[in-house]
TrEMBL record:
Gene3D superfamilies: Jelly Rolls. Its EC number is 1.13.11.5. This is Homogentisate 1,2-dioxygenase. It holds the Pfam family HgmA_C. Residues 8-277 form the Homogentisate 1,2-dioxygenase N-terminal domain. GO terms for molecular function: homogentisate 1,2-dioxygenase activity.
């Protein structure tokens, strides 16, 4: 029985990694020998096409007790409150929208049963766009595991810690960190000492990668060394196990007589990873004007059009603001890109009331938005001394595709139908003088 359950990590981002739970389990000099060490099976896992250029080709060789095909047939099951793009069950209005946090369930609820889709865009079958989900759970998944064939999963925890048990190993995750699980990787979520809640971006498009730095040069933003990968871990557990797959927007389940977490060793560059958001090196203005929020991009999924993302994952972390003669909060704007925001902790500087941790907002393509009226008045008259934004962490999922809310999102009591009121006191200040 494997005893390697330590939460240790290999550093890097999209680099080749190798790890083994038993010494000598990795073949040397080739990937698929006639007979693998320990009589394991060699299985390649690919999240890009075989023919992608070497620098962005993603694949991992796994050495496992049984190949993944040792399983029963899939049968369709109820997908609950999960939806996929395109959203066709309701129309997509251009209104600004905001929601309160999803409540913690009272009945026993695991990650799968506590998953709810708020919005989506693109086309899950065409592998473009994203799904935006929230989760709320109070128990582990037991003998169930899950994977999405529709997209990679970006977890953004807001409440509670959990252990992600994946085919490549275990990762301990807490609020202030993110977890990315590649398309197709099986996993289960085990809450650690209490309920959990957070957000999930399901990326149907190209895998997430680090944002380019451009004129910023060699340093700043997110650095490769801070991305952490799991050490190999395996279970030799016999007995019925249920694998749940999200495929073409539907849920299917298949039974097998052993744990799917039986990878004894692996080598490659497509594996789950985590990142501590406090390690993001913030760049900001030291002269005037509020820069574009793209300077806060942690990860991006490119589209076929250069510079126009399928989705950007952007954060607004603790930082200094020193801009002179400047309206410091985000300016009023209408945007080609569509924006879905969430709050992990604290207060977001443009929305001081009504936007609570665990809450969400949606500002779609060309719909105007910006700071609430009280924030505008305060920022317009503030003494512009250096200011430290503390105890805050908001994030934004920004996409080139219009983000359509689900029927649940439009009709839930969590929706703040009076959201527009925060701009209701915007006054006319024009006086005809320069």
């Amino acid at each position: 029985m494997n005893t390697n359950t330590e939460l240790t990590y290999i550093f890097g981002f999209n680099n080749e990694h190798q790890t083994e739970a038993l010494a000598g389990a990795l073949p040397i000099g080739q990937f698929s020998p006639q007979r693998c060490p320990y009589e394991l099976y060699a299985e390649q896992f690919s999240t890009t096409a075989f023919t992608r250029p070497r620098h962005d080709n993603r694949r991992t060789w796994t050495y496992r007790i049984r190949p993944s095909i040792a399983m029963g047939d899939f049968s369709k099951i109820d997908k609950g409150a999960v939806r996929s793009g395109p959203i066709t069950e309701v129309d997509c209005p251009p209104n600004v929208m905001r929601w309160d946090a999803l409540p913690i369930p009272e009945a026993p609820t695991d990650f799968i049963d506590g998953l709810t889709t708020m919005a989506a865009n693109g086309d899950v079958r065409g592998q473009s766009g994203i799904g935006i989900h929230v989760y709320s759970a109070n128990q582990g998944m037991g003998d169930r595991s899950f994977y999405s064939a529709d997209g990679e999963l970006l977890f953004i925890p807001q409440l509670g810690e959990f252990i992600a048990i994946t085919e490549m190993g275990k990762l301990a995750i807490k609020p202030g960190e993110i977890l990315v699980i590649p398309r197709g990787i099986k996993f289960k979520i085990e809450p650690n000492q209490g309920p959990i809640r957070g957000y999930v971006c399901e990326n149907y498009g190209s895998p997430m990668e680090l944002a380019e730095r451009g004129p910023a040069g060699a340093n700043g933003f997110a650095n490769q060394r801070d991305f952490q990968y799991p050490t190999a871990y395996f279970e030799e557990t016999e007995g019925e196990h249920v694998v749940i797959a999200k495929f073409c927007g539907e849920f299917y389940q298949a039974k097998q007589n052993h744990s799917p977490f039986d990878v004894v060793a692996w080598v490659g560059n497509s594996a789950p990873y985590k990142y501590d958001l406090s390690r993001f090196n913030v760049l900001n203005t030291v002269s005037f004007d509020h820069p574009d929020p793209s300077i806060f991009t942690v990860l991006t999924s490119p589209s076929s059009e250069t510079g126009v993302a399928n989705v950007d994952f952007v954060i607004f972390p603790p930082r200094w603001m020193v801009a002179e003669n400047t309206f410091r909060p985000p300016w009023y704007h209408r945007n080609f890109m569509s924006e879905f925001m969430g709050l992990i902790e604290g207060t977001y500087d443009a929305k001081e009331k009504g936007f609570e941790p665990g809450g969400m907002s949606l500002h779609n393509c060309m719909t105007p938005h910006g700071p609430e009226a009280d924030v505008f008045d305060k920022a317009s008259q503030a003494e512009l001394v250096p200011q430290r934004y503390e105890n805050t962490m908001a994030f934004m999922l920004e996409s080139r595709y219009i983000i359509a809310p689900t029927k649940f999102a439009l009709n839930t009591p969590l929706r703040q139908n009076n959201y527009l009121a925060c701009w209701g006191d915007l006054k006319k200040h024009f006086n005809g003088q320069p």
